[in-house]
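If it is no trouble, can you show me the amino acids of a protein and the tokens describing how it folds?
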Amino acid sequence: MIPRIVPTPIARLEPPTARATPRRVAPEVVASTLPGPGRDRLAGDAVLAVTTGQQPGLFTGPLYTIYKALSAIALARRLERERGVPVVPVFWVAGDDHDFAEANHASFLDAAGDLAHIVLRERPADAPLAPLARERCGDEIRAALEQLTSGTPATEFKADVLRWLEAAYRPDATLADACAEALNALLGPRGLAVLRAHDRGAKQAAAPWVLRGLEQTLGDGYTPVFVEAAQGRDRLAANGDAYVTRRSRERFTRKDLERLAREAPERLSPNVLLRPVVEAALLPTLAYAAGPAELKYLPDAAPLYAALGVARQMPVPRWSGVIVESRVDKLLQRHGLGLEALDGKPGELEARLVREALPPEAAQSFGTLRQEIEARYAGLARVVAAVDPTLERTVQSARNAALAGTQEIEKKLIASLKRESETLLRQISRARDAVYPRGEPQERVLTLASFLIRYGPGLLDALGDEVARWADAP
């Protein structure tokens, strides 16, 4: 049975209304796109595109990577119907990214429903910050796949899911290429064009625009351009008639960088603000399906579009949602809770539910006892005040001690109930791991693989249908 899917909108979707002229995509950019229906359409006549992108991740990374891709697919279909011209969904695999700590792990729900983590390996602190397009999966990928295999339940879908991942995440493949291949195998048949932005052809096409970015200085004093130098990927700052890297302090003349653009374009890359400008220069992009953080910083790129003479694509919010499995749904319904109840400090919900599990007569007895203590000591305080006011503090202390004793009995009773309610507490903990793992939204932590192992391709169909409804909503 396919689990319930609950949309959690980032913001209201307002599709682009500006007119755009379809154009042909450069052959070297098409050649950097993995084979499939999407690339075939890009290679045809003039087209428009809806794009999205993400840095590579282990086993395709968190769920929101898939949600971004599905959003681009659904928006492209809607805009194609409305405009009557080919609109291709394109996923930009940001293999230039060098943040290995963001890409080296995957989290999933194991067979018992507990949160499990896979870490490929750690990068030494003093290692160069190499782009993920040059970070191979290595032999460690076998152990990572085995951990996923042994940690997930046996289902009719498991073998196919593992074959899908094993075909892409090979020891000799880079993390960038592995993620691109996995996305292409999963969503290429749905029309997604997976663009390997780190491929030599795409890098050569982007190089003139990256070089033009050298003429711009951002608020932090650096250009929006990276060069791969002695310490890995490094930002460049203008320094007299040359450029100097931020960390290694290496010096490059303009001619040095132009030579790199010709001979080793993979060593040059745009920063997070220049990247969408380069994308819009290479692709006839109508809209970019963005996450919450991107929607905040993409407006800061506006001056770069103007400076480079590139028409700006419209950022639109991607689809966002939660996969709610039946065991979580049953728990919530049993206790009359919404999903937001799981988004709190660990222990708060558990204590409340256990407290509510107190027998009614116990709760009533504690309430009556507190009222009696308050009333009796209030009467005693009046008598004492009339006879010997110096004893008022003694009466107050005795009242507080009596109330504290009552509270202590109640605490011990609740603790006893907690011990007897271990099953409930375990269910709540697992439900929290399923919906708000580590206190974060599900889509930012869990990977798709364990859900596909449980529910098969029908889950991807259900997600696609839900995203399509979102894209078509007025």
